[in-house]
Amino acid sequence: MATQKPIYSAATNQLQHPVIYLLIILLLVACQPPSTHTEKNVSRDFQQWRHYGGDPGNSHYSALAQVNRSNVADLALAWSYNSAKQQAISATSELQINPIIVNGILYGRSPQYNVFALHADTGKELWTRPTDTEPVGLSFMRGLSYWQDVRQQQQRILLTTSHYLLAIDANTGQPISDFGDNGKVDLRAGLGRDINKISVYAPSPGVIFEDLIIIGTAVNETFGAAPGDIRAYNTLTGKLVWRFHTLPHEGEFGYDSWPTDHWQTGGGANAWAGLSVDHARAVVYAPTGSATPDFNGSTRKGNNLFANTILALDARTGERRWHYQTVHHDLWDRDLSSAPTLATISDQGKQQDVVVQASKQGVLYLLDRDSGKPIFPIAEVPTPASPIPGEYASPTQPQVTLPEPFTRQAFTPDMITDINPEAHAYVKAQYDAAAPFAYFRPPGLQSSILFPGFYGGANWGGGAYDPETNLYYINAMEDANLINMVALELANDNHSDQGQLIFKQHCSGCHGDQLQGFYPYAPALSDISLTGNKSEAMAIVQSGKGRMMPFNYLSNDEQSQVVDYLFSLSESLLLSPSSKTSNPIEPASTNNNTPTTPTETAYVFGGYSPFVDQRYYPAVKPPWGTLNAINLATGKRQWQVTLGEYAELIAEGIAPTGTRNYGGPVVTAGGLLIIAASSDEKLRIFDKSTGELLWQYQLPNAGYATPSTYEINGIQYIAISCGGGKLGTAAGDQYLAFAIPNSSQ
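User: That's the sequence. What structure does it adopt?
Assistant: Structure tokens below.
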């Protein structure tokens, strides 16, 4: 196989005695007392994969070494499993499962939300069960949680579907009827809102601590969103044990970082990306996202604790131990988008337990696990003011000094794409029309460049930590977006104007103010008046579809107004296609004989506009997708290679650029770094020391998921779910497992 050379390399800075260090860690782990509540050994079990991310600390590490540098070329498909059976797979399905493996059984889910159990060495099905809960929008999921009692008499799988937390018997798949309300807990309940008017779900599985499952949720990102409470439920009964208000109530710490009583109407600050837990410390670490609405903070003046924050909470009580906010008053959708990694850095004979948090900004936040204090200095640097009336952007933002960033941190003119002259000219025209790039420039009426873009940097796949070397591995996207706000002059009593306002506030961010969509993330709706009907559109608004959450918090009249506006705008665009511009237009209306006088100005988000060339490739020079190794002890980047390629660009003589990517890596004691994630639908294995490509396999569909690795009967397996469905790739349902033939010891 041709060697892939690193695009960045630094002098190796290994630990002087990595083997001794690993033995010490394993000895310390072995000496920890067992839990009196749940599993006999809650320490990291590096030979199974019983947790999302591999272990409670989300290290993505395996001590297995049967598959290694010397024999990985012999890795072959061991089995495959079609999880959908004969059921149709929605084109919008996004199966992103990191399967868990416990006692030789692999647990996963299908695109239809069914749960299944397989013999992990053969792929033979043990059982499969529907969840008996109708999915509502957002057809993707990332994992499951396993719990057993101290006597190992009960084994349960805990998972979510739609807005429900479910418990099923791990041996049969049957619902646990005495958990919650007949086997399920409604995650919308207890948030202080009408449960029929909010959307709440959990794409990432909860973490298990003793007899608790601790979980965060995802919510809408516009007006009317639910608050992002972090909650702990009893794994036996489903009863709520504690909650932490990420929107502080009166008298709670952080309350004064919001307008008075904002918690009663505000939303977001939610931990959708997953959690990590330190069993020895009895602490759960939670990364939160932005407050809502994402890009307009005029109703939430202040720094907005605990949005965009790394939280350390007492796992038994939910009491805050410490917090660190990574973005103040977020106006850029800078959610902390992956579960933190719990690592132990060894440097010059000293060890320090840390939290590693990857970010969309392309930097790592490295914090002491006990105090939350940064390991390396983080500066508060001045940032521009907002040009939008009524918006109060924070005058400063945190800026990481070390570890070194894993993406470029600015988009300068010399970085405009050069894959061909046409692409360069197309992008340069947009670049010149945008406001000059600035670190944390607030969005204004003029487009500005957000780099890295809305999706990172890093996203939900997170990173992998190698205790042998201090190296942290993270895949990244180097993509940009154009961001702007739109001013709307509206008359409150006009049906069409109100439909326009609702559409601009809740819909145009994804579908565009001219219904153009934002490929490959959201579809165009410009021809909906020809291809759809209003009753179907109303059903989607009410129930959601694919990545779109239901807009059940809108009244029936508001839903009708937005659908009427949508069809009216579509008709107008079809009649006058030349009128398409980036500015709001007044659609055709049956009720526009009497002029109305604007009574207010509303500023709404202009949309998730990708900054791309005429063929939808990123506007910035390659690399567009990378895999990075960072030494946590020194803060220095060790190496960087491209991740993924576009076959059509290779055919044009362009070197591998890397692709957009979703899903994380796994690092092993065998010297390997395993990752899929790329949109070219390949599973790759790299040398963890150098970034050299050692092996690759063409998957049936893209593996937008983190792999799992485990051992059964002396054989090491590597498993991946192949769900596709993102970035213009076809949706799939297969699970694949690989092993070295005849490798049983």
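Confidence is low (pLDDT under 50) at residues 11-44, 578-599.
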